[in-house]
Design brief:
Structural class of chain B: alpha/beta
Structural class of chain A: mainly alpha
Strand content of chain A: under 5%
Radius of gyration of chain B: 19 Å
Largest sheet of chain A: none
Shape of chain B: globular
Order of helices and strands of chain B: EEEHEEHHHEHEHEEHH
Distance between the termini of chain A: 17 Å
Number of strands of chain A: 0
Mean pLDDT of chain B: 88
Number of strands of chain B: 9
Helix content of chain B: 25-40%
Oligomer: heterodimer
Number of helices of chain A: 11
Low-confidence stretches of chain A: none
Strand content of chain B: 15-25%
Strand order of the largest sheet of chain B: 5-6-7-3-8-9
Largest interface: A-B, 20 and 18 residues
Helix content of chain A: over 70%
Distance between the termini of chain B: 51 Å
Chain lengths: 257, 248
């Protein structure tokens, strides 16, 4: 069981992998197997990146997409967590609502795109709506399941020591489910970031998703790759941010035992 | 009688058609340590839930004088609070903050876990967690301490140490104790009086007293005799003299 600690050099391994991918990519494009227009070289992509940065479009698109995800996701958390807590505590509410929540949870949020456009037009509102639809149901489901799994002894102890009503909710139920909520937020934020790209392709005039669509329409495959790299990197960054929540001392118990 | 802290009269509890406790009567005096033993599933926890007031009897009644604290069989520490915060839960009713802090510090000295005050329960061993549970239950003034198989999840040696620990804590902070356990040795080593319950529906099959002061050694003749007596009662051991001399 006692593995030797890995040398700190191992952290260079992912960099080596990235370099290897870059070399293979450059090699393939140098061989000229595909036309340049459908298989851009790393060099063309690098120039495309500079171009996108210079005219400020990339920055605008990033801000637009992040704003939509943050708004839709925040709405889903603010409404979904309380609903999940309530469902988790009430057997009747659970029986009544869980099938519906499960239905919408399993319905691809992308299926809502036509309605999103019909109801909300183009721009921020349809994208926010779609992100909300993608995040809300998984959050409700995860929260209510977590509440149902709280060992009953915690409530007995809390009662013994005089916790009542709101205090029981904020100082017992909520901290007891926090680790699972954070895990759910991680999964859901990833989902929301995937959905925003799709939403903006069809219901946007800006944002990273729209930029992908625009690059495709203009046959600018170099810009297409630029957007792909940015989208992937931001997705990873969002996840890292939420992973940081798991290091809060009062939730570590949920991941360490 | 006013000196009885807990008084149980004709206590009966059934769940639907299932009769769990059948007409149990018991009086427990101030400062007395009573252990309730019996086969697993016989209704010991049900009995304790009725004594604590968490559950209501089907018939009969329970009266208790004073504040009750309970230590549960399952891990009852809040994992999101540090050891110090968990023990401080026991002091929530204390108005005087400085007094509460003093009590908290004293409790830490008593259980000898000062350097773990800012640790979380999952970073502690099972025995340490149980010490913290006892500290939380004993931190503030109370009258009755109910223990529901508090050491059943610990390994044998840790269990032996925890018995000493409990005996020691009780000399510092005397309480009337009701211990429910399936561990007959534990009962014999700790209790002033042992109440043996039958299989379900549980009735009191026997009561025995031990007058040896605590802490008692596990191999003390009276402890051994009590264990033997209970095991005979449960039909597990037979009378040594009679089985040693075969009959005609």
């Amino acid at each position: 069981m006692n593995e030797e600690p890995l040398p700190s050099r191992v952290h260079l391994l992912p960099v080596a992998v990235a370099l290897a991918v870059l070399v293979v990519w450059a090699g393939l494009s140098a061989l000229g197997l595909f036309p340049r227009t459908v298989f851009p070289s790393p060099r063309a992509v690098a120039w495309g990146f500079v171009e996108e940065l210079r005219d400020g479009r990339l920055f605008n698109d990033v801000v637009a997409s992040l704003f939509r995800v943050a708004t839709g996701f925040a709405l889903a958390v603010v409404l979904g967590c309380p609903l999940g807590l309530w469902i988790g505590h009430h057997a009747r509410a659970k029986i009544a609502l869980l099938p519906a929540v499960n239905f919408f949870r399993n319905l691809s949020p992308l299926a809502w795109i036509p309605f999103a456009v019909l109801w909300f037009g183009i721009g921020d509102p349809p994208a926010i709506f779609l992100i909300f639809m993608a995040s809300f149901f998984p959050i409700v489901l995860a929260t209510s399941a977590a509440v149902a799994n709280i060992p009953s002894v915690y409530f007995r102890v809390a009662q013994d020591y005089g916790f009542r009503g709101v205090e029981m909710l904020t100082r017992v139920t909520l901290p007891a489910v926090m680790p699972q909520i954070i895990t759910a937020l991680r999964v859901t934020a990833g989902l929301a970031w995937v959905v925003v790209v799709a939403a903006e392709m069809l219901a946007g005039r800006d944002g990273l998703g729209f930029a992908v669509w625009d690059a495709r329409n203009g046959l600018r495959t170099d810009l297409l790759v630029v957007e792909m790299i940015v989208i992937g990197s931001i997705g990873v960054a969002i996840d890292r941010l939420l992973v940081a929540l798991m290091r809060v001392r009062s939730v570590r118990w949920g991941y360490e035992r | 009688m006013s000196d009885n802290v807990v008084r149980v009269e004709g206590l009966t509890r059934s769940f639907g058609a299932l009769l769990v406790l059948d007409d149990i009567s018991l009086e427990i005096g101030r400062g007395e340590f009573v252990a309730v033993v019996g086969p697993s599933g016989c209704g010991k926890t049900t009995f304790l839930n009725l004594v604590s007031g968490f559950d209501r009897p089907t018939s009969g009644q329970v009266t208790r004088a004073g504040v009750v604290r309970m230590v549960y069989q399952q891990d009852g520490l809040f994992p999101w609070l540090t050891v110090a915060e968990n023990i401080a839960l026991g002091l929530r009713d204390m108005r005087d903050e400085r007094e509460a802090e003093r009590q908290l510090a004293e409790m830490f000295v008593l259980i000898g876990l000062e350097e773990f005050a800012n640790h979380y329960p999952h970073q502690l061993s099972g025995g340490m967690r149980q010490r913290v549970e006892l500290a939380r239950a004993l931190a503030a003034p109370s009258d009755i301490l109910l223990l529901d198989e508090p050491f059943s999840s610990l390994d044998y040696l840790t269990r032996l140490r925890m018995r000493d620990e409990l005996a020691r804590l009780l000399t510092e902070r005397p309480r009337t104790v009701v211990l429910v356990t399936h561990d007959i040795e534990e009962a014999a080593q700790l209790a002033d009086r042992i109440v043996v319950l039958t299989e379900r529906p549980a009735r009191i099959s026997r009561e025995l007293r031990l007058d040896v002061p605590r802490p008692r050694e596990l191999t003390h003749p009276e402890v051994v005799a009590a264990v033997h007596g209970i095991l005979m009662d449960l039909g597990i051991e037979r009378d040594a003299e009679r089985s040693a001399v075969p009959g005609p």
